[in-house]
Structure formats: C-alpha cells, structure tokens
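Hi! If you just cloned this repository, the fastest way to understand the data is to look at a raw example. We've pasted two of them here, unedited. The first protein comes first, obviously.
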Amino acid sequence: MIILLISVNLMAQQTGVNYDEKEVPNYKLPELLVSKNGRKIKNAKRWEKIRRPELLKLFEQEVYGKIPVDIEIDDVIIHEAAGEAFNGTAIRRQVELVFRKDDLALSANLLIYLPKDSDNVPVFVGLNFNGNHTVSDDPDIRLADSWVRDNPSLGIVHNQVTEQSRGVASDRWPIEEILEAGYGIATIYCGDIDPDRDNFQDGIHPFSYQLGQFRPGYDEWGTISAWAWGLTKAMDYLSTDADVDSSRVIVFGHSRLGKAALWAAALDQRFAMCISNNSGCMGAALSRRQFGETVGSITKAFPHWFCENLNKYASREENLPVDQHMLLALVAPRPLYVTSATEDLWADPKGEFLSAIEAGAVYQLYGTEGLPVNEMPAPDSPVAGSVGYHIRTGKHDITSYDWKQFIDFANQQFTPEQ
C-alpha cells in the first residue's frame, strides 16, 4: 500500500492530476430535488413530470448530446437462431441489426447466449470493446468486420481483427457462470455502432446529418450517446425475442462503456436495471470533486465522446448545471449498481460512492432505500438497497468477483414471481 501511494503521488506530481483528498475543492452540488424555477420536488409524481425531464434535457444539451433523428431497425438478419454452445448447456444466437437511410447502411451484430431449455430468461446486455468474438473462445462466433483500434498483441492489425483476437477478453465475460445462474447475456461490439475515434464520418452519426453537415451539432450526440442509442436498439430486438424476459433486461458496462450504459438507462426506461463498473468521470463519479480524471482531461483526450457543449466546462466544473449524481438518479426507481476499484484512482472511487449516496434521495421518493450506508465500505464488502455498491481490491477492470456481485444483486431485486 505504501508503494502504491508513493507511486500515485509521483504520478500526480508529474501529470498535474489530483489524487489527494486534501486538494479536492470545496464544492456545492446542484440541487437534485429543486426544479429550475425553484419548485421543491416532494414526491415521485413531481419527479417524473417536472424534474426528471429537466435533467434529461440538460444532460442532452450540455454533456452527451441529443439524438437528433429517430433511426429504426430496417432489417433483422438471423445468422444463427439456436446454435449449440458450452457443451450443449446453452444456445447461441447471432443477429445482425441493419439500419439504412438513403445510400447509407450500417450493421450492428448482436451475440446472445441463453441457458438451454429455458424461456422467459432475464438478460444482461452490454457493449464490448473489440468485437463479439473476443468475449469467448467459442470458434463459432462471427469475427467483427468493423474498424477496430490496432493492437498487434491481440491480433488486431490494420484496424481489422484476426483469429488471434478470439477470446482475448473472455476473462471479463464469465459467460458460463452467468448462464448457470439462470441469466442470458447479449453483446454488441461498440465499433459496429460508432468506431471509437474522432471521425464522425463512419458509424451511425451520418444518418442524422443534414445536407452539407459533416459532424454533429454543438448539442448533438457524441460517441457515448451513439453507443447508448445502440443499446436501446439491442433492447428493441430483445423485446421481440420470445426466449427473453424483456421486463428483466439489465444494461451494464465497464469504463467508457459504463458511461454509455448509464446514459442508455436514463434514456430508455425499459431497462430493468443498470450496472456501472468503473465508469469514472462523466459516468458515476462527481465532476465537481476534480479528483483523478476531470472534465478538462476527458474532453481533451476524447473530444468525440461528448457533445461540443461540454468543452465549456473544462476546468470550470462548478459551472455545470448538472453533476453525475443526477445521472444516477435518472435510473430510479429501477435498481442501480455502481462499482469501483482500489487502484483505479483515475476513476475517483470515492466520487462514485458519493454520487450513488446522493442519488438515493430520488429512490426515497418511491419509498425504497438507495444505499443503506453513509460511509464508504471496506474493499470487497458489497452493500445494497435499491442502489448497490462495492469497491473491489485491484485495478481498473471487470472481473469474476464483480460479476458475482452483479448476479447476487439481480437475484435480490428480481422476485421469484417475475
């Protein structure tokens, strides 16, 4: 631990990043339960009618960007309806969701595993970083053909995957354990929806452009909003799958994809639950703490993730009309699980925990308890009400330990009758 703290302090000195709680500025969070005209929100009805729409609009305008057009699935191609998987214990489904507009076409490939001989199955759905074939060494998963960031060590060369990349992320996707617990799992490669680069000429964004437009408007969707949109399209399909219980679809994501999962859950209330794993800045962590990654650093490194309006708040977090506890609150009254990691100071674990605490005020409007504690729990000691939280020993990652907590939390939230 001493070595880690010395390392963190040296890194902070070299980069100018704050990892010292003593250097967190005094801050005041914007009021969660006071409307823009000063009206106090005292019940769930007022929250749903007044405050929730206000906050959703602010996040659209100032952070993630609004989705300017309604783009529906044009075609569904079933490449595999019920392939046998995992020694006959599961079925594998591979579905291509096709979108078209004028001369534009885009395909998002959805991989689904379900326990064999089960119906009405609850499903975890989330995006992956490098292609569906990376989540398992299953040789029958179709290789991604979208642009992927080069990583020769993973077999990704000239922005295309190879067989070498098959199963390289399987440690983050304990699919057999998820299936054994009675859940299905579904995933789409995020780059099928929008490649993770500052381009805006590929992916889904051109579908929304007007004549002469080459990038989203200052208040229009960045890549995270596009990824969230893709998750809602996955939900569209899952709602039609007779083997899936569409009332128990859990949206989840790790890191930048955790930011997308939170935004998707805010936009689409069909998701029954949301899991944010190490989502950090502009995910679960409070921006005003300016601890670890900040608005300034994230908009400089990844300007394409957000709408251009967010640039106004670089090093001016106190001027943001929202903070991330408000994003978490938009998930209410649906169950929410937030995670951190002890070595992931860049994502500000304490800021994630405090954000989850603050969101509990909206859960109380619905007569449920958010987080049942006020003090940050010890590592590897999960706590849960309608909002759950744990900080795991280790680095920025998603592990089998995390997945065990997700499954346990889902089991607590979904009653047997469902």
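Ok, and the second one:
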Amino acid sequence: MSQKDFFPVRNFSFLVLFLCIAIFLTGCGGSVSASGNSLTGSNGGNGGTTSSVSAPRWHPVLSDTWQWQLRGTVNTGYAVSVYDVDLFDTPMATIQSLQAAGKKVVCYFSAGSSENWRSDFSQFQAADMGNNLTGWAGERWLDTRSSNVRQMMQARLDLAVAKGCNGVEPDNVDGYVNRSGFPLTAATQLDYNRFLANESHQRGLAIALKNDINQLSDLVGDFDFALNEQCHEFNECDNYQIFINNNKPVFNAEYASVYSSDPIMRQTLCADAAARRFHTLVLPLMLDDKYRYSCDL
C-alpha cells in the first residue's frame, strides 16, 4: 500500500513534516550508534559512553595475585592473575600476550605529575606544572583543577583503551598533601580522583586508588581496588581494611631493604599481609624486576 493512500494531496505538508522527522530520528539513531561503538571519541568518555560499553568491566577480586613492573622488558613468566605495566612503554603485543595467557593488564600512568620524557609532555601548559617531585628527576606536580590537565588524562585513558588495557593505575593522586605549588585541598583532590574513576568506568576500565591514604573511606565506592606502597613500613595498613571489607583487593609493594635481605623479617611481613588478606610484594624501588619476593606462595 502506498503512502499516497494514507496521505491525500491536501495533507502533503504533513507528509513532508513526517518524513523530515523520520529522517532526523534515523540520523540521530545512527549517530548514537556510531558514538556508542567508539570508546575514544572527542568527548573523552563524557555523555553516555557508560551504556555503550559492549563488554562488562573487569572487577578485580580478593583472590587476584599480581606483578608490578614499570621498567625494562616485561617479564611475563610469573604465575599471577594481574600484571601492572607502564601505559606508554609497554608494547600492545605484550599486553595481548599477557591477556592471551589469561591475565588482566593494568596500565600505569601519572595523573598528578608531568614527566618530561613522556610523548605528550609538550601538551602541558606552563601554568599546569608546579613544584618538582622530591627524588624524582623530571617530574613536577600538576594543577589537577586545570581543564587542560583533565583533557590530557582523558586522552591517556583513551590510549589505555586503544592498547587493550583492562584497568589503569593513575599515580600521584594525593597532591593536596604534598608541596605541589598549588592551593589544592582535600575537596579538590576528591573531585579529581572521582573524575578519573568516572572517566575510567565510562571507558570500561577498572581503576586503582594509588596511596591517597587519608581518603580511602571517601573513595572506596568509586575505585575497584587499591594499590599501596610501604604501608607495612610506615604502619599505615589498617587504613586499607575498608577496601577488603568491600571485597576489593589491596595490592601492596614494600621497598625496605630489610625485607629483601632478611628472610625472618620477610616472613614476619608476609604473615601480617596474609592476616590482612593483602597481596604483598617486596620489590626494588625502580620496579625493574631486578628481584621479586611474593607473599603469595
């Protein structure tokens, strides 16, 4: 039956309006579908990407074990379920190889400091960068309130998606308790860290809360797992019980030489980690796989 049977000539203007609306709706549907299939659009994951992720986001579990290596060729031979590697330096082929072996891959990047060796360093504005990070040459604290900084972090999350990472580990997300050179506060830090979590989740990425010990209770609902450095050495591990209580794993690294040189001290460390249900590694500070002792035996 033709459209003419339903719409006499005298209602031609209505027909035109109907067709225009239909074409418009069809176009909108196509546009939504196109953006829904892309996790790296110009909006950086804002505006509905969450509902468009085709695969469910990886949720780490308490039993997950891990390896952390950020420098050198990644040693893929450890019998763990999670690898944490550098976002920029790790080849996509390595990520794919680890995943083919049944492992999840977390990709590290600094979200709170500029690093002058990174490929996108030139995109930071002078006003974005503050004081140097003590002990880390070439790094400066970032003004995490900056829209430019946030856009760059969105681009880094897009890179994590493009390289096939299952999750991310944004570092230096506690600038407000350091001498950053900016008037950062607990409130601005919470806002920034939740921004990172939301942007990660919109892209289908799990996200670790790195250190930021004073805000663990505030952020446990926003992050999928915690990554801590040296809580045993500095007697800060009690703070992480809230993640365990919420069935979110705690990955812990200790660097003190006594743990690598003294088997008795290491045994004591591992007993405490086991009681807490932490996954503790004793690693070199450079995270270059020079040595590795795991409390997960």
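That's it. A detail worth noticing about the second one: The radius of gyration is 24 Å.
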